[in-house]
Amino acid sequence: MSTMSQMPLTSVACCQITLAVGDPDGNRAAAQQAVERAAAAGARVVVLPELVNSGYVFRDREEAAGLAEPLDGPTVAGWIASARRHGLILVGGLCERDENGLVRNSAVLVDASGVRAVYRKTHLWDMERTVFTPGDELPPVVDTEVGRIGLLVCYDLEFPEWVRTVGLRGADLLCVPTNWPLSPRPTGERPAEVVRVQANASVNRMFVAACDRAGPERGVAWVGGSVITDADGFLLAGPLPDYDEGLVIAECRLGDARNKRISEHNDVHADRRPELYRSILEPAQSADRFLMERKHHA
Q: Which residues form the CN hydrolase domain (predicted)?
């Protein structure tokens, strides 16, 4: 039997739940019930959606600020209590008020020892720019009992160079709280968001667990596209039938992500040619300067 086949399996779950903007108590209760179901199903890693405590469709910055919590607030405290009770690693999205009073769209990883990592969303989607302060630090990769776990939030997945930073630092599993607004797609097609998850998993050879949400909110509907992929980018679980509420759970041999070979002669990380990629840096900077000047003069 090969070494790969002897590596242990880890049960990973995404809790696709309905959230409501401005109802932190109800949102926390819904998340708690979902975590209990995931634990009962044997999950060791549980992922919750983006902005669990607050909901998403804010009227303005002031409403978001009124719902934001510090890391030692009731939402994260409840996650830590669940992690201790069930022996879980839990990742969830938080409307956070940071130590400087700034409102952040954050992902938090906790285990029985407490908060292990916090990531502030770097790439803000649409009206999020009017509400949140973007992060400016690399996403964390955390050593845990089950393997190395990286964190991103939603729109971050659309920047392959950002996802690559997680892969290059050795993540076995990337956990991504999301709120994907529903957009039209051709009949029979998978959501583009799911396709991007699979592509990012494949080109980095790492597992990805992306947890979306359900339930309409102030006229906005959601994809409901929670999925878990293997290191080849194939779906292990999800999306759920009718993209509704429920539990997406899969057994993952996370050690497989440490083998970056895709053929006898190819390795998705070792085959990179960064000395050539640098040649595009200056043109990219010139384009960025052009866009900034155009915006300034608009």
A: 10-254
50 is catalytic: yes
Q: Catalytic annotation on 121?
A: yes
**Cis peptide bond N-terminal to 8, omega within 30:** no
DSSP state of 3: H
Quick: pLDDT tens for 123-149: 999 999 999 999 999 999 999 999 999
174: helix, coil or strand? strand
Catalytic residue (one of 15, 95, 154, 252): 154
What CATH number does residue 204 fall under? Answer: 3.60.110.10
- State CA 212 to chain mean position distance: 9
Domain that holds residue 280: 267-298
Q: Which of 121, 128, 217, 252 is catalytic?
A: 121
Amino acid at 42: G
Same-domain check for residues 51 and 138: yes
Q: Within 10 A of 60 (CB to CB), how many other CB atoms are there? A: 10
